[in-house]
Amino acid sequence: MEFLIKGFLKTSLIEWPGEIAAVIFLPHCNFRCPFCHNSDLVLRPQNLTTIPEDEVLVDLAKRRSWIDGVVITGGEPTLQPNLPQFLLKIKQLNLKTMLETNGSHPEMLQVLFKRNLLDYLSMDLKAPFDERYQKATGIKVNLSDIQKSMNMIRKSGVNYEFRTTVVPGFLSKVDLFDLAESIPWAKRWFLQQFVPHNTLNPEFTKIKPYSKKEMEKMTKMLREIVRTVRLRGV
Asked: Where is the Radical SAM core domain (predicted)?
C-alpha cells in the first residue's frame, strides 16, 4: 500500500522543541475543525502532488548528519495504516521521530508505543470534554477515545506535549480553565495563537486573534493548574 505524502519541509527549527527536524505532511483528517489552516490537506488532498516515499527517505538519508529527527503531521497521520512501517524506516536511518495527532485513534498509538517508534508526541486538545469538543471539531467525536489517548500518552514514557489553538469565540478563559482542570498532570501544554488564514471555514478568516497581552494573561492564569503552560506563535 502506498504511503501518501503531500508535503515535505526539509528543515524546521520550530516544530519540535530543541530539535532540528524535517517535517512530513500527510493527507486526510477525520475532524473538520473550522479554524484549521491546512484546509487543502483535509478537504482537497487529491489536488496536491504526491511525493514518492523513496524520494523522501533518500533525502533524509543524505541529511541525517545535520538534522535530529522527523516530524509526521497532517491531516491526521494515524489514519494511514502503514504509518508504523514508515516510522520504522525513519528509525532505521538513526533519526528520531515525532508525531502530531488529534488523539482519535488510540489503537494506532498503542501499536506505535509498543514498537518503540516514537521519541516525541504532540496531541491537540481542542476544547473541554463535552459538547464544546464537538463544536470545535465540526463532527461528533468519541471523547472516550480522546481521553484514552491522553492517558496512554501519559503512561507511555515517551516525551510529549499537548497543544490547544486558542480561537476567539470558541475558547474563552472559562473554557481554557475547564480544560486545564482535566489535565493538571500534563507535562507540557502549549497555547497556540489562532492564524486566520486558509481556514477550513472561510468565515474564520474574519476572526481577529487574541492579542499577545491577552494570551499571556491566560497563560499565567492556567499555570495555577498546569505547571508548564507556554505560548506558541505569539
From this structure: 15-234
What DSSP line would sit under 6-69, residue for residue? -EEEEEESSSSTT--EEEEE----S---TT-S-HHHHH-GGGSPPPPHHHHHHHHHHHTTT--E
pLDDT tens-digit readout, 183-204: 999 999 999 999 998 899 999 9
Residues sharing a CB contact under 8 Å with residue 1, sequence separation 6 or more, in sequence order:
81, 82
* Cα three-residue angle 41-15-6, rounded to 5 degrees: 25
Alpha-carbon distance 44 to 53, whole Å?
A: 20
CATH class of 7-232: alpha beta
Q: What does R_g of the chain's alpha carbons equal in angstroms? A: 17
In tens, the pLDDT along 55-100 reads: 999 999 999 999 999 999 999 999 999 999 999 999 999 999 999 9
Cell readout for 19 is 530539535
Name which residue leads in pLDDT, 217 or 234: 217
Rounded Cα gap, residues 23 and 8, in angstroms: 6
Domain boundaries, the chain: 7-232
